[in-house]
C-alpha cells in the first residue's frame, strides 16, 4: 500500500510537470511555426491524458480486494497502459498525416534558434522523468509507471532526433527537412505505441511471464526438500504489481493434513522471502503413487515400493506442464 501511495504522488508531480512542458512546446511551435515542433507538442497532449489516466489507475489498483473483485483491482493497470498505447499510436498517425500534408503545402519557419532552446529544455526534463518512472515501475512492479516512463523516455529520444533535424534546417535553410523529421518522428511514435499496447494486451490475456517462472524455478531447485517429490502445473497470473501463483505439489501419501500443510507453508515462505514482491500463492497437494518412487529423494521412506531411479531437475516445461510425477501419469 505504501508503494501505491508513493506512486500516486510521483505521478501527480509528473502530471504537473507534463502540463508545464506541454505549454512550453506549444509556445515553441507558436513562435516558430515548425511542423516538427508542432508534432512534438501534439504528443505532449497524449502525455497529459495518459498521465491523468495512469494516476487514476494507480489509485484504483491500490484499493483492497472485495466481493466484486476478489483478486483486487490491479488489472486496471494493464488497461491503463493499453489506453496509453492506443493514444500514442493515434498521436503518431496524426503526426504522419500532418507532416505529409505539409510536404504538399510547405510553411515558413521563424525564430528557429529560440524554438530549439525551448524544445531542448523539455527534452532533458522528459528524459529524466522517463528514466525515473521506469526504475520506479520496475522496483514496484507497476506496469502503469513503467509504460508511462517508457512513453516519456521515447518522447525525449524523438525530441532529440527532432532537435538534430532542426539544427540541420537552421544551418542548411532547407525547409522540407522539417517535414522529413516530423515523418521520422511519427513512425517512431507509432512503433513505441505498438510496443506499449502489445505488453498491456499480454497482461490482460494472462500471457506467461517466463522471467518470473524462471526465477521461481531457480528458487525451488536451489532450496528443494525431500518431501517435495514433484511440482507441476505451475502458473503465474499478474494483477498489476501483484502475482497470483498456483501449482500442484506431490507429497508422501501417508502425510497427515497437518504435515502436508506444514510443507506447503515452507514453500510459500520460501517464495515470499525470495521474490521480493506482493503475491498470493495457492498450492494443491497430490499424494504420491507407486511410480513416484522412481523420482522420490526420501531415503528413509517407510513405504517405498520401487527403487530410486533419477533425480529430476525442474525446468520450465516440467513445472508448467499439468502432468503428475513427471512420468506421464
List key phrases describing it.
Alpha-lytic protease prodomain-like; 9 helices; mainly alpha; Alpha-Beta Plaits; 2 domains; 329 residues; three-stranded mixed sheet
Provide an overview of this structure.
The longest helix has 31 residues, at 2-32. Helix 3 runs antiparallel to helix 6 and helix 4 (112-140) packs antiparallel against helix 5 (143-172). Strand 1 and strand 2 (242-251) form a beta hairpin. The chain has a 3-stranded mixed β-sheet with strand order 1-2-3. It has 2 domains: 2-204, Alpha-lytic protease prodomain-like (Up-down Bundle); 210-326, Cation efflux protein, cytoplasmic domain (Alpha-Beta Plaits). With 329 residues, the protein is mainly alpha-helical. It is 64% helix and 9% strand.
Amino acid at each position: 500500500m505504501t508503494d501505491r501511495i508513493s506512486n500516486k504522488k510521483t505521478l501527480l508531480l509528473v502530471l504537473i510537470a507534463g502540463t508545464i512542458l506541454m505549454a512550453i512546446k506549444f509556445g515553441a511551435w507558436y513562435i516558430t511555426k515548425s511542423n516538427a515542433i508542432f508534432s512534438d507538442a501534439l504528443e505532449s497532449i497524449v502525455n497529459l491524458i495518459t498521465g491523468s489516466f495512469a494516476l487514476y489507475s494507480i489509485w484504483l489498483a491500490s484499493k483492497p480486494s472485495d466481493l466484486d473483485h476478489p483478486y483486487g483491482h490491479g488489472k486496471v493497470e494493464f488497461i491503463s497502459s493499453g489506453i496509453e498505447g492506443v493514444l500514442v499510436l493515434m498521436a503518431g498517425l496524426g503526426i504522419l498525416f500532418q507532416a505529409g500534408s505539409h510536404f504538399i503545402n510547405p510553411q515558413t519557419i521563424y525564430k528557429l534558434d529560440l524554438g530549439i532552446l525551448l524544445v531542448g529544455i523539455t527534452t532533458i526534463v522528459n528524459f529524466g522523468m522517463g528514466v525515473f518512472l521506469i526504475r520506479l515501475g520496475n522496483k514496484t512492479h507497476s506496469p502503469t509507471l513503467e509504460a508511462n516512463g517508457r512513453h516519456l523516455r521515447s518522447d525525449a529520444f524523438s525530441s532529440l532526433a527532432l532537435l538534430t533535424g532542426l539544427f540541420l534546417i537552421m544551418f542548411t535553410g532547407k525547409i522540407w527537412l522539417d517535414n522529413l523529421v516530423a515523418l521520422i518522428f511519427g513512425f517512431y511514435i507509432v512503433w513505441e505505441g505498438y510496443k506499449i499496447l502489445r505488453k498491456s494486451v499480454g497482461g490482460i490475456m494472462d500471457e506467461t511471464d517466463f522471467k518470473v517462472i524462471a526465477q521461481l524455478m531457480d528458487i525451488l531447485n536451489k532450496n528443494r526438500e525431500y518431501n517435495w517429490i514433484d511440482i507441476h502445473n505451475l502458473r503465474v497470473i499478474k494483477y498489476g504489481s501483484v502475482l497470483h501463483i498456483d501449482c500442484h505439489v506431490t507429497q508422501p501419501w501417508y502425510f497427515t493434513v497437518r504435515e502436508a500443510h506444514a510443507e506447503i507453508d515452507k514453500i510459500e515462505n520460501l517464495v515470499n522471502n525470495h521474490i521480493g514482491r506482493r503475491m498470493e500463492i495457492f498450492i494443491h497437494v497430490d499424494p504420491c503413487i507407486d511410480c513416484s518412487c522412481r523420482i522420490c529423494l526420501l531415503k528413509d521412506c517407510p513405504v517405498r515400493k520401487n527403487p530410486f531411479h533419477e533425480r529430476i531437475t525442474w525446468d520450465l516445461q516440467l513445472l508448467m506442464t499439468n502432468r503428475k510425477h513427471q512420468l506421464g501419469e
